[in-house]
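Deviation from plan, reported transparently: 5'-deoxyadenosine complex.
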Amino acid sequence: MEKNFTGEAENQFYYIDKCAKIVAEKAEKLGRKLTYHIATFGCQMNFKDSEKLAGVLEQIGFEEAETESADFILYNTCTVRENANSRVYGRLGYVGKLKSKNPDMIIALCGCMMQEPDEVEHIRKSYRFVDMIFGTHNIFKLAELLSEYFDTNDHDSSEVIKGKKRKHNMVVDIWKDTDKIVEELPSKLKASFKAGINIMFGCNNFCSYCIVPYVRGRERSRKPEDIINEIKKFVKEGVIEVMLLGQNVNSYGKNLENPISFTQLLKQVDEIEGLKRVRFMTSHPKDLSDELIDFLKDAKKVCHHIHLPVQSGSSRLLKLMNRKYTKEDYLTLIDKLKKAVPDIAITTDIIVGFPGETEEDFEETLDVCRKVGYSSAFTFIYSKRTGTPAAKFEDQIDEETVKNRFDRLLAVVNESSGKYAKSIEGITLPVLVEERDRENSDGKNYLTGRLDNNLLVHFEGCDELIGQIVNVKLSECKGFYFMGEIEA
Ligand code: 5AD
Ligand code: SF4
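Because the crystal trials were delayed, the predicted structure below was used instead.
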């Protein structure tokens, strides 16, 4: 384990300055700014990490580019399911061709997939054009690694002597685990009015199918004062909505020197002046406390939405998944939530085709979906992850059965999300306007925004409203989203 030490941010600013000088010289030679492009795969955690990486790159002097024909390409990878890995290899094939035309281009890989030694070995051997690889624990070291890259590579074609072999050294830095949390590095928000806030990193739950604890390490919480200060800073800059992020937010604060509960933190966030909406994810059903449910009733800014992954409705499978709750426990929790906050929207994650899943087990999952009435659900086909206990389980389910169950689950989920949306059709609710709608084929300017319950609404309006909360009548339910009209 790496040890915590103060001054790490200062150390990184030294490398930011060092890289900035090199990048400025290059820009002068080229007569244009150097560009970067980050492609992010996976979950909210990765998107948050990408904002931090973008912050450092902009501080160095890079400018964001929409496409992969940039000077610095960074893939922030995911490995939670096999298809996430395949997508990265697909992108690497494409970007390798771009690099053969522009050898000064820098290609970097980071994130969860890079925490897997076999994948890194494969990339080293078969994708030798990659320039930098780092993991999930040391993303704060981007400038230091880039500086090492500049020091150990021929990175400027105009300076490479004709006929001489270009020096290429792949910079690889992966840490197994760390307790280090580096504060105060720059970050660049994707949208100026909302921010994801890491409250903790890692996961201790070891659900038997999941690779996250192996690639993101053990649970560690940020200090409450650091979280509150970061949110206040964002609010000063115009942020009105925050999403508190952690793999299991309900176990926040347990490992702090002065332990505090997630609800106590949430209460402090709820008091921040100028902030309008607070969201949080993900909640593990085994840790969702009565204290939190009680607070949700009275909270001023906490949205009436909870993401509560069930994974399966079968108590037998839940045990094999190491989830530490039964179907009955889960449904009791849902009852408590609905009693405390009657208009709460509940979303979930569900896995189909876990090893040994019988038709009866699957029916239990459908039963939970019907009973809960999810406003939306992420449904996944089980993916075998080497190194997890479930990868060794017998009775892996055949593809055809899984596909059939997946389609049936989707039908039930769609029916329940449709029913939920229909129940609020016609009423007027506050919407945070997020962006201009891309599908405005009728010549009118359409905007997209989110309700407190996280559902999407499309409506006509001008771009100046982006980042504001406006009242919108939910005129027409279109399944799991609405067409609406702004009300004065
Ligand atoms: N296969 C399929 N889905 C998985 N998830 C995690 N691991 C796997 C896996 N091996 C899903 C879980 C989790 C979500 C983020 O991804 O449903 O809640
Ligand atoms: Fe994976 Fe379970 Fe941790 Fe979620 S709680 S990240 S599913 S191990």
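Residues 1-5 have pLDDT under 50 and may be disordered. We consider this an acceptable substitute for the interim report.
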